[in-house]
Write a structure and sequence with these properties.
Layout lengths: L11 H70 L4 H10 L3 E7 L5 E6 L9 E5 L5 E6 H4 L1 H4 L8 E6 L4 E4 L13 H7 L6 E4 L5 E9 L4 E8 L4 H48 L15 H19 L8 H32 L5 H15 L4 E6 L10 H8 L3 E3 L19 E9 L2 E10 L7 H75 L7 H32 L7 E3 L1 H19 L4 E7 L7 E3 L1 H18 L2 E10 L3 E8 L6 H4 L23 H11 L3 E7 L3 E9 L4 H7 L1
Parallel strand pairs: 15-17
Antiparallel strand pairs: 1-2, 1-4, 3-4, 5-6, 5-9, 7-8, 8-9, 10-13, 11-12, 12-13, 14-16, 17-18, 18-20, 19-20
Length: 740
């Protein structure tokens, strides 16, 4: 009896819709990820640009303020030294274009001479500058005086200008057309309230700018720096172009991944789905033909389908005799096939979701939740290999060792099964290895509350799914490790750049920003203490002496740091010449004795100089050699509280040795290893606690090496130290005559 079954209707739109959804999800996911990366990069770039703008405006403001003070100080100094005669004042007016008028008054404040100087616009502000004795008073055109101070190079067409406390522009750099009242600018208002900071607003010329304002103490003026937003246009264009390129590459990569998935997974699944539908409809002549590049598990499943169909076709002759029996069998088979199709769809759903997860922990949570929900399994767990003890005789260890799926239909008869009190209802177990290449990277543990709960077809699907989980888990782990490495590398690179930038800016601006104001502080302190400005109260004299002492200490520190940097970079030059040692050594001894009397009067010390015979001259830089010897003797005075500090000279055939010995606390062996490294006075030695900057000895050693010699030390803890300066000996004409 022949039975013709109806053909299964084909719906080509099903696979198309599935591929479309996958393509859409993949491209959207990758684009979202790329947008997050681009946004993070843009934020970092914005913060870097903002910090660079803050540093640029801050440095420019300080330079303008320093130049303004210097220009005004130059006028005051000139008025202090010039003679109050008409000829001298006319000569001064001719040499100083900023002067618009000069007055000379007598002791009673009556004007005895007035000399008009250079013409100045009546609308421009004029500064009144007087000499120290108030005998000479000059009218100074602020615009001319501070013109050079504001004409600094501010990147990106930026400019600077000075404003007085009433908001009137005193002088502006560049070709600026004033279109706004400075009093309305946010930066000026913040500066009047003793604030600062980068702000975004319409600037003096009416255009949008990034600006900052800072008050100049003592002058009553505010310096404002502004950079037009057009300076950042090229950066914005580059960011937009990079974003467009990244999104395009992401779309191309997503399309390539989708095509690979379609060829290796979706097309075989569609073929299997059509075969299941055909067999479910009763068409036993249908044969499943999976593509050539199908995974082994799906190909085996297709062959199993075909084998089953062949068997059903062979049994066609028995259908007539056993119609009722076959109907029940067919019904049973149909339900099984439906169940298999459902499992395949669930496996496809799991595969689709895990394909986009790059966090290992999130991947494990998602897979466990999907399997437990879709397959209705009592307990699902993914165990990674590092968490497995291979030496144990357990089911889990056996799966990891042999890399094969292990199923236990009834755990009550399995000796290797270890009951878990948290899972009391477990009756059967299936453990599937997660293999990546030749390695087992984990185990998929599934437990059911029913015996013999896992059938062969389910096991095949779960094994196929386990391979995809293994690949996704490995990729997620690699991506997580790569991201961690990238973050560490980016942080290290950023810190290195920031450290190099800070060092460069310090070396560039240290001379102008520290030396000039510090010299002014020391000079004014010495002038005040000398009594030029009148009698200073005793309490104020004590405070002023402290200011002077600390200023000199800071000046020495700055000089040491700049010397160290100059030596290390090879930019320091030494002026060599013949140096007579006796007067130099006596000068160093006198300076050290003065230091002991003024700074360390409580030290019970005797300073001695030991010289025998006639000392030869040495070929050296006098100032640098004096610096080395004073530094060694000063250290001896500072760190030795009693007994003596001795400076002795020994003449050898090839060198002259100058030794400075003290009876101080000494230096430990551990600290001796790092003694000539910069800033090593804070290593914990009792000899260096709270004294010095840690730069004197490193600079001295480098200077000694530049002379072709060296500086060494010998020390015994609690007994004292001896520093030896070795200078190579050269024969001058006098020495040759004496030996001849």
């Amino acid at each position: 009896m022949n039975i013709t079954l109806p053909a299964v209707p084909k719906d080509p739109s099903t696979g198309y819709r599935l591929r479309t959804r996958w393509r859409l999800y993949m491209i959207l996911g990758l684009n979202l990820l790329m947008m997050m990366v681009i946004s993070s990069a843009a934020l970092i770039l914005f913060l870097e640009q903002r910090q660079a703008a803050m540093d640029l405006h801050a440095n420019t403001s300080r330079q303008v303020a320093a130049a303004a003070r210097q220009a005004l100080a130059s006028v005051e100094m000139t008025l202090n030294v010039i003679e109050p005669t008409e000829a001298a004042l006319q000569q001064l007016a001719a040499n100083m274009p900023a002067l618009s008028g000069i007055s000379v008054v007598d002791e009673n404040g009556k004007e005895v001479l007035y000399l008009p100087a250079n013409e100045s616009e009546t609308t421009r502000p004029v500064l009144l500058v007087a000499s120290a004795d108030a005998r000479i008073i000059a009218d100074v055109d602020a615009a001319i005086l501070w013109r050079e101070a504001v004409n600094l190079d501010l990147a990106g067409d930026g400019y600077a200008y000075l404003v007085n406390s009433e908001g009137q522009v005193l002088v502006a750099g560049g070709d600026i057309q004033q279109k706004r009242d400075p009093q309305t600018l946010p930066s000026f208002q913040a500066a009047r309230e003793d604030g600062s900071g980068i702000r975004f607003y319409k600037g003096l010329n009416g255009g949008w700018v990034v600006g900052e304002a800072r008050s100049i103490p003592g002058l009553g003026v505010v310096v404002i720096t502004e950079t037009p937003l057009s300076a950042y246009r090229s950066l914005l264009i580059r960011v937009i172009a990079l974003s467009v390129l990244a999104l395009a590459l992401t779309a191309l990569m997503g399309e390539w991944v989708i095509r690979r998935i379609v060829r290796s997974v979706l097309l075989p699944l569609e073929t299997l789905q059509k075969g299941a539908q055909a067999v479910g409809a009763g068409d036993y002549r249908y044969r499943i033909r999976v593509p050539a590049n199908t995974d082994r598990e799906l190909a085996d499943l297709g062959r199993a389908f075909n084998d089953m169909i062949v068997k059903l076709q062979d049994s066609q002759q028995q259908i007539d005799a056993y119609r009722n029996e076959m109907e029940s069998i067919v019904d049973l088979r149909a339900r099984e096939l439906s169940r298999k199709a459902l499992q395949l769809e669930v496996a496809a759903e799991v595969s689709r979701k895990i394909a986009t997860l790059l966090d290992p922990r999130a991947l494990i949570r998602e897979v466990v939740a999907l399997l437990q929900d879709r397959f209705n399994i009592y307990h699902v767990e993914i165990l990674q290999v590092p968490a497995v003890r291979l030496q144990d005789e357990t089911l889990l260890a056996s799966v990891v060792k042999h890399g094969k799926t292990l199923g236990v239909p009834d755990v009550s008869v399995e000796e290797r099964f270890l009951p878990n009190p948290v899972l009391p209802a477990t009756q059967s177990i299936l453990m599937v290895p997660l293999r990546f290449g030749e390695r087992v990277i984990g185990v998929l543990d599934l437990e059911s509350e029913h015996r013999d709960a896992f059938r062969k077809d389910e096991i095949a699907v779960l094994e196929s799914l386990a391979n995809e989980i293994a690949v996704s888990l490995h990729n997620a782990q690699m991506f997580d490790a790569l991201e961690t490495a990238n973050r560490d590398l980016a942080q290290a690179t950023l810190q290195a750049k920031q450290a190099n930038l800070v060092k460069s800016r310090f070396l560039l601006n240290a001379s102008h920003k520290l030396r000039t104001p510090l010299n002014a502080i020391i000079g004014y302190s010495e002038t005040i203490l000398s009594g030029i400005y009148g009698v200073v109260p005793e309490k104020m004299q004590d405070r002023q002496r402290r200011i002077l002492d600390n200023g000199r200490v800071l000046q020495a520190l700055i000089e040491d740091m700049l010397d160290l940097s100059s030596i290390e970079t090879g930019s320091m030059e030494i002026n060599l010449g013949w140096v007579e040692l006796p007067p130099l050594l006596q000068e160093v001894l006198n300076a050290s004795e003065a230091l002991r009397q003024t700074g360390y009067a409580d030290h019970d010390l005797q300073l001695r100089l030991e010289m025998e015979g006639t000392l030869p001259r040495v070929w050296a830089d006098l100032d640098r050699l004096r610096y080395i010897l004073i530094n060694l003797m000063s250290n001896g005075v500072k760190f030795t509280e009693r007994s003596e500090v001795v400076m002795a000279v020994e003449v050898l055939n090839e060198a002259v040795l100058i030794r400075v010995s003290d009876t101080g606390p000494g230096i430990s062996d551990e600290e001796l290893k790092h003694l000539f490294e910069p800033f090593q006075h804070q290593r914990g030695s009792i000899a260096s606690e709270g004294k010095g900057t840690g730069l004197g000895l490193p600079v001295s050693k480098l200077l000694a090496q530049m002379h072709g010699g060296d500086l060494s030390v010998e020390s015994t803890l609690y007994e004292g130290s001896r520093f030896t300066l070795r200078l190579p000996r050269r024969m001058d004409d006098q020495s040759k005559e004496e030996q001849g």
